[in-house]
Amino acid sequence: MLVNDKYPQQSYSQTSIINQLKNNQATSLILFSLLSSIFMAFPAIAKESFLDNSKNIKTLPLPKSKQSSPPQIKPDSELEISSGTARLMTQELERLISRFETTLLTADALNSNINISTVEVIQEILRQPTITSKQNNKQVNKSQYGDAHRALYRARQGLKKFHSLIDRRYYNMAKAEWSSSKQALWDNYPVDRPVAQSEVRAMWLDRGTIVKAQSKEDLLPIFDRMAKAGINTVFFETVNSGYTIYPSKVAPQQNPLVKGWDPLAASITLAHERGIELHAWIWTFAAVNQRHNVILNLPRNYPGPLLSKHPDWAITDHEGSRFHYSSGKIFLDPANPQVQDYLSSLVTEIATNYKVDGIHLDYIRYPFQSPTGKITYGNGRASRDLFSKQTGFDPVNLYPEHPLWSEWTKFRIEQIDNFVAYTANNLRQLRPDLTLSTAVFPMPKRERLMKIQQHWETWVKKEWIDMLVPMTYAEDADALHILANPLLSEFNRGGKALLLPGIRLLNIPEVSAIDQMQLLRGMSTEGYALFAAENLSSDLTTIFNSTQGSITAESQQPLPHRQPFYTSLLRYQNLQKEWNFFLINNSQELSVATLEKWGEKADNLGQELQNLANEPSHKNLFSTQVALRSLRQQFPKWIEETNSVNVYQGQVWQNRLDTLDRLLDFGEKKVLNPNQAVLVE
């Protein structure tokens, strides 16, 4: 799914510029800067005394200067940093500083013995009559992580120096300062302490990892590793390239690489023994994969066991070719009733015969059309017949400029929508406890509908699915934000589903994975999904264990899609801890009236959430929603009143309140009204 798809790469000016800078060999720049500084030092660097006292920070400080004035001649070898490039470099460092600071506040609050009651914390603050008493209070609740705070200070000072160096036209030294400021943060990123919250922590367990195991015993260390890493939900690759991973009575053939045993049954047992949910990951409409044929030592263009038996179930391009031009896959025709019956029978077999906790639909779309529009897909026999009956026109003769092209696009969108709705309805009747999720592309809506006919906004709005898992794969947190942030607007319009953006672990540093996870925790999301188990290294396992703890059957950690009200309570309690830690250290900036109002509303919401978690009811839900709405309305004014909360931190707190709102809506759907959702109009 996720590895082979050719998602059109977007060009981000920031990423390209930063990569270009990285390619200039940062080490050479730093060495050049150090040599240059011996001859061309200036007063601003001479004042840097903080770094001498920060020996634990793993970063390269600029040397002190003995000269009293800057040189007047810029070396010819220095490449000028344009104002645009400087702005992008500044933004990247500022965003990293903000994420680092927010993560550090979370770690400080979670690892403190601070009172959860905001009213009691504020009363204690107001009882301290002098500045000295307040300072003593701050000492009691100060951070335990000195190295990280020194690194944060180092980076802030480095950003100032970066601007000063550019003003003086010392571009090589500016680049070196920028790089070493970033490195100070990366080397001291909080990866050795708890920073997680109650959330869905999903991981795709890929076919390659599964087939390497030859028995249940071989799978055991894989699940042990995921449990140690804190993974609580596994998307287990159950149907791939037309083959099932288990012996099926519906599918024509089990994957020959696992013939003789049942990895699905074994994995369900192993997962549940460790307190992990297992969701069956199904390739829905993608039925053949040329790469998989090669792995099985079959002809590259072998149509697979399913389409060998039912060749008319496939869709083609406008010239009759079944294999997709870039991915090498063949897709089933979503408009074919026999295809729909087959896939529904497959889902029913899995849900009925196995104690899976959910169904995860992948390839729930048409194949990508070519960028030029010259190669288009969807021309199965059933699709052509049905569309011709509706419009009087054979779609094989359509092209993007044709007046009926929009009708053809709409027709294909409806076929996918209808299958999602039917599957949701079927599962609701078979096993209402199952969670239905879909892996989707995060492309802009218009582009996505034209290229792959995947209208997941409808699935969320109509409450057909429980979790949306966009494949927001990015090299770093900034690029991830570009992909994930636009998705939130759809969820903030009242969709009762959970959002789990995806992170691809392949070829990214361990600290970058944590940074991306922390970015998502600061957005209004309910968790994340990691691709894939084959990339879960021992180092990552250790880091994940430190930041989010292990999963056991005895830990009874609540999952948002199972206990949305209890999850809301735990999330809010952690948020209150952060507020209280902040107030203790910054209360002098706020008026007494503001402090008291904050405490009153904060504790009132906490009590309402507690009541709802203890006794789920429409009455308690309404009271909680009123309390949350009241606090959310006042919160921006409180944040504006203090100078100690940066824009990013304020937005993170606002996002977490938004997430509570969506969790309450989801709880209304799943807990209070489990049978009232309209699935098919």
3D shape:
globular
Low-confidence stretches: 1-73, 130-140
- State the distance separating the first and last CA atoms: 31 Å
Query: Radius of gyration in whole Å, from Cα?
Result: 28 Å
Give the rounded overall mean pLDDT: 87
- What proportion of the residues is helical, as a percent range? 40-55%
Sketch the major β-sheet.
10 strands, mixed
Please count the beta strands (DSSP E, at least 2 residues each).
12
* Number of helices, counting only DSSP H or I runs of 4 residues or more: 26
Report the β-strand fraction as a percent range. 5-15%
**Protein structure class:** alpha/beta
Notes on the protein architecture:
With 681 residues, the protein is α/β, with parallel strands linked by helices. Helix content is 52%, strand content 8%. Strands 1, 2, 3, 4, 7, 8, 9, 10, 11 and 12 form a ten-stranded mixed sheet that branches. It has a two-stranded antiparallel sheet with strand order 5-6. The relative contact order is 0.11.
Summary of the model, kept short:
The protein has 26 helices and 12 strands. It has 681 residues and is an alpha/beta fold.
Question: Any descriptors?
Answer:
681 residues, alpha/beta, ten-stranded mixed β-sheet, two-stranded antiparallel sheet, 12 strands, 52% helix, globular, disordered N terminus
Topology (SSEs and partners):
Elements: H1 13-22, H2 26-39, H3 43-46, H4 83-110, H5 118-127, H6 131-140, H7 146-167, H8 171-187, E1 200-205, H9 207-212, H10 216-228, E2 233-240, E3 243-244, H11 263-273, E4 277-283, E5 286-289, H12 290-295, H13 304-309, E6 329-331, H14 337-353, E7 358-362, H15 381-391, H16 405-430, E8 435-440, H17 445-451, H18 456-461, E9 467-470, H19 477-484, H20 488-491, E10 498-499, E11 502-504, H21 510-521, E12 527-531, H22 538-548, H23 564-586, H24 592-614, H25 618-641, H26 647-672
Parallel strand pairs: 1-2, 1-12, 2-4, 4-7, 7-8, 8-9, 9-10, 11-12
Antiparallel strand pairs: 2-3, 5-6
